[in-house]
Design a protein that fits this description.
Helix 3 packs parallel to helix 10 and helix 9 packs parallel to helix 10. The protein has helices at 4-9, 50-57, 66-83, 100-108, 118-126, 143-152, 161-170, 209-217, 239-257, 284-302, 315-318, 352-356, 445-448, and strands at 36-37, 43-45, 48-49, 61-65, 88-93, 112-115, 134-136, 155-158, 175-180, 222-228, 264-266, 308-311, 322-334, 338-343, 362-364, 374-379, 388-395, 403-407, 427-432, 435-440. The longest helix has 19 residues, at 239-257. The chain is an alpha/beta fold. The chain has two domains: 4-65 and 322-447, Lyase, Ornithine Decarboxylase, Chain A, domain 1 (Beta Barrel), CATH 2.40.37.10; 67-318, Alanine racemase (TIM Barrel). Bound molecules: ligand LLP. Residues 93, 95-96, 114, 137, 193, 195, 230, 233-234, 268-271, 312-316, 352, 356, 412 line the site of ligand LLP.
Length: 459
Amino acid sequence: MVSTQALEAQNTGRQYLTDITPERSPNQSLVPLTAKVNDRDHLEIGGCDVTDLVQQFGSPLYILDEASLRTACHQYRDAFKRYYPGESQVLYASKAWNCLAICAIVAQEKLGIDIVSGGELYTALKAGVDPSKLYLHGNNKSLDELNLAIESGCTVIVDNWLELQTIASLNRQNVRIMLRLTPGIECHTHEYIRTGHLDSKFGFDPNQVDEVLKFVSGQPTLSFVGVHAHIGSQIFELQPHQDLGGVMVQWLSKAAQYGLSISELNIGGGLGIRYTESDDPPSIDQWVKVVCESVAAACQAENIPLPKLLSEPGRSLVGTTCVTAYTVGGQKTIPGIRTYLSVDGGMSDNPRPITYQSLYRAIVANRMSEPMTETVTIAGKHCESGDILIKDATLPPTQPGDTLVVMATGAYNYSMSSNYNRLARPAAVLVGNGNATLILQRETYEDLIRYDRLPAHLK
Ligand code: LLP
């Protein structure tokens, strides 16, 4: 039975709020868990009116809901406790959004962090994250990055022969390493974000497992802790991760044959999120259950002890916890073709639509109960025809100055943002219990020329 409330919400911005139910994980709700419509008929997140936030902090604005992020963290943590009989550690894949505040929140929630560069490592350290919970990735780590990671006490996830030989030649004691292998598992996601199939730039080829393990077993300075694999991102199927558990346990079993201790297995990330109402990803609980059961069953079959089970979710922790608020500008109607509605940001704050043809949904924060009767194309402000945030957005009629909110922008938006056309990056606020705190300051024009140098002969 559809409730009267749900019926009234149909065809208005309120319809997206019906995603929020106690049974759903944050990754299954298009809007942050604290999203509400207040008595001004405005969208509210974390107890803050979104139009007020834009007034106070400017536009565009990333708005991150602290409660949703913490809920996603503890859902992962609790599910591993529930389903895995051994030890576990969730690592936040911070490439999804690396900044001081997010690193600090996830660390408070007892997560470790996956980092992929000296810059991400530096940020996590500055946020006070315990280095023993930091894992450094990358297919071409520089010597500086390796040294910083090793000196800080991070674990290095070794990706290839050159790196393995480089680390061995550094002659440092007890360097904690994991080996990244390519499992040869296909999953259905965008080609650019698939990493587990054999034709991938990441990881050792599985045919080389014996050779690599043998080499590692002969290196007294390396402390081998286990194996890693990551098969891709925005994955809705559970089968690939179930298969992955089995494949990885076989690698561990091989490592044991070479006399290596097999303490950790890192199964990567990849769980998808809801960007549109047709996206129906599994819950965090369902994903974790499959991973745990698959690893535990494979260990039993191979008769090896349970390793500490690590995972690296990024998108499913942070993706739906954030929205981006823009201010509506002009409209251009081309009769019989389309109406373009321009906003004050675009591909520089969200490069995903132009890069991956990713789909998003939008609502008008100050018109939450108005029927969505128009189909418009939401255009960014960049000098590029492809700078389209949403091709066919259904919205109520809008006016310049309205606050347009694009949902599920927490993952790979800020972290992939640019200054294209010399646009300053937006600010980001953390909201909760009616308070908003700045976590990323808006860039200024001065910031944009900070690294420019004008040679003397041009002055
Ligand atoms: N671990 C490794 C080794 C990874 O490469 C990734 C993502 C993750 C974990 C986290 O995956 P997640 O849980 O977020 O799916 N820029 C693309 C996504 C690239 C993903 C890169 N690796 C996008 O915007 O869709």
